[in-house]
Amino acid sequence: MSDERISTLRATAHPLRLRMLSLLTGTAMSAAEVARELGITHANASYHLRLLHDADLVVVEGEERIRGGVAKRYRYPHERPEPKPSPADLTAQVHAMAQELLRRFEHRRPGRGSFTDAELWVTEETWQEVAEMVERASRLLHEQAQRPRTEGTIPVNLTVAAFRMEQS
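The line above is the sequence of Helix-turn-helix transcriptional regulator; the predicted structure tokens follow.
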């Protein structure tokens, strides 16, 4: 596996960087904007954004002059295919997802939601249909994502781990 691919996969194995990718799905943001939204320091936001950029997970959408400096605006191009992780990298990503899900769960609101945990035996056709539905739901949310706190929007969570298991 190339160093570039390893860098890309490791970059997603951190809960804060997963939050950044979510933020940057709906809009391009500067490090200062990301820092304010996540309640972290500008230096910390810049560091993690650089790692995501170096791993080719975010792109520079533009630059703007701010108080004598130049601020880069980063965006997560969710429409690009992501590389296939190694088993070790995938395990790290799942750990980061689980940690981030626990944080988000603490901020849930009463009302409509869906919680499912299942280990089931189904037909291949049923599995294919479910996998396509999950992919469509994920794509729809990513395509419709907007800048945080845009009027008329609500914060939502979608954490999905759907996969075929080996027979034991």
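Note on the example: DSSP finds six helices and two strands in the chain. The chain has one domain: 3-144.
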